[in-house]
Amino acid sequence: MPVPQATSDDERVASVRESTRRFAEERVRPRAEALDETETFPLDLYRECASLGLFGLTVAEAHGGLGADVRTYAAVMEELARGYASVADQCGLIELVGTLLSTYGTPAQIARYVPPLVAFEKRCAYALTEAEAGSDLASLRTTAVPDGDGWRLTGQKLWIHNAPVADFALVLARTDPQAGHRGMSIFIVDLDAPGCSRGKKEHKMGQRASQVGALFFDDVRLPADALLGPPGRGFHVMMSVLEKGRVGIAALAVGILQEALEASVDYAKTRRQFGKPIADFQAIQWMIADMAKDTAAARLLVEAAAAKLDRGERATLESSYAKCFASDAAVLHTQNAVQIHGGSGYIRGVVVERLYRDAKITQIYEGTNQIQRMIIARQLLAD
Known about the structure:
Blueprint: H1 9-38, H2 43-51, H3 70-83, H4 85-104, H5 107-118, E1 124-127, E2 143-147, E3 150-161, E4 168-174, E5 184-190, E6 196-198, E7 212-222, E8 227-228, H6 234-239, H7 242-270, E9 272-273, E10 276-277, H8 282-310, H9 316-341, H10 351-360, H11 369-381
Parallel strand pairs: 1-4
Antiparallel strand pairs: 2-3, 3-7, 4-5, 5-8, 6-7, 9-10
Helix pairs in contact: 1-3, 3-4, 3-7, 4-5, 4-7, 7-8, 7-9, 7-10, 8-9, 9-10, 9-11
């Protein structure tokens, strides 16, 4: 799916949004309930996404991507999430890994990994989190030590998206124990290498078609060209994509919000109590009004952060505003959507029940919302 040739950036984003919405409505949403119930990895659906150009959106066309901007990426994330958040989550993972590889990779690394990644011929993982290192990456324990002309990797990672199915992973490891954040490096690890193994697939509260598990590295021999970017700069390389990542998660949360809003409006108009639609009751009207205004506000925060990144500027504050606000709103208002639906909203198979579960993780990954508030406060209070 080439980027549409529209007369303005706004029209181009709107065109991609509309085509993605049609795909989500026709191909993703009808399968969401079954994917949630069975926790199935929808390989065929992801291949279809890749064929439409929905993976690696901002990756250069020369490397197999669309060469689109961050605003377009955010629009795609929102529309896919309206269909099913796990599908948007896969889009976001490929976007981050594709960005890291195409920005910091050597020509050989880019040629080997990026085109098959965005075509979904290779499946990726992004392995940062450990038992003692989630928000606090300074406590990272996975190590990579020099070994001849290569490295030896030892450690384990937890709660890694795609771990049960990935072909390769970008792994953050400590290469200099004395250097703090400057002593970490990122490695491209083929997960069929001797010494690599996987833990069991975790059974999650929400976004259940997203496969999550542990990765174990037992003295894994890595060649010299497994290093991604400069040695000792892994933390900074990783941080360089987090702003885009937070915009993506915020957009995913907006998609959940929009879907919950539309389901609540439809239900309120058709459900009757005391002889009239529940939409006639002020208590329901106010919940829907709050849901609508917060959805609109969250979308504007996403667009503002994306636009700043597209101008080549840092968006530390703006991406944290968007991620924190949108995900908090998604959890609050999917809860209200369940309340509007009453007892039926508590039943599996009713869309708002799934949306409520799918929303919660948006407050946790890509930096918890407590971390977002710390970032915001530090930026505002800095001398």
